[in-house]
Write a structure and sequence with these properties.
By secondary structure, this protein is α+β, with helices and mostly antiparallel strands. Helices cover about 35% and strands about 20% of the residues. The strands form 3 sheets. Strands 1-5-6-13-12-11-10-7 form an 8-stranded mixed β-sheet, sandwiched between helices. A 3-stranded antiparallel β-sheet has the order 2-4-3, with no helix packed on it. It has a two-stranded antiparallel sheet with strand order 8-9.
Amino acid sequence: MTATYQPSKIWEKTENYQREVLRNPWYRVIAELQNSITELTVDFWRARDARTAYLPVTTGSISSPMGLGSDSLPVQVDLFGQKTYLADSMQFMLELGCRITGKDTYYIMPSFRGEDIDPRHLSQFFHSEAEIRGGLTDVMRVVEEYLVHLAGGILERHSAELRAAGRDLSDIETLANGGKFRVVTFEEAVRLLDGEGVHNEPGEPGKPGWRTLTHAGERLLMKRLGEFTWVTHFDHLSVPFYQAFADGDRSTAANADLLFGIGEIVGSGERHQNVEDLVEALAIHQVDLEPYAWYADIRKSEPLRTAGFGMGVERFLMWLLDHDDIRDMQLVPRENGKNIVP
């Protein structure tokens, strides 16, 4: 399908980028899709009687710390002499929100990462995140319902714009009609890939190694199984400490990544229910307990089984537009180390 709308790649030359944003209809489409995702997200959670929360963008307890299982670099800033971090996620606060309100809790908020930008990564992006009362299978079902809801609403509102951007709507229509979701465990995925696209991190004496899927592995798995494939129960050391243990020997996590489009677009997992498991996980992942003492304490004050997910909004936009560069999903470009106005 021929595309009428094409991005101007404002991230390549950011001086006077606003002229291209105002001139090029591509960015009007991005703005409309962003608005619809927000409205549809609010509608989805309102129907579930969930609660949203106003949360800060600074934190002393980043959710992807520099320990084993972290796949991101934190962004540290000096705030009037106090070292703090720009939030990569406020998932921990959503866990607190579930306990405060007694309801599922959600938001769409900016996230900050220390990596350089590239076709798959932004240094500042938006997260649609939620924490629900329940376990891993519960949150996986909610994610599927959420994506079906988004696809239906987007088709109803924006079919013409998507076609003008060169998008064949057939797989969006499939998702809007309920989709076809597949589930494999990480171990099953490794066997299916026969080691191809699987990264092995060797262990040390007294410290086990771990494995994870590379981007190439995600793409190959989707090629073999199709889009909207869940991969569950990763090696625990390959995911952040807050994912619950899925087995007695602490080797796997109660987590699940949903692969479609670029690869992983949604990450989800169940949380540790008790303090003892959390403290053990911190030690295994070589993360200091002190910044997370409050996080442990809420399990003493208000025990609750929860699970949550995060969806990269710009990655979802890439899938909607069948586009291959996440940097074109921004209305206002941002890059670490550059002063871009406004």
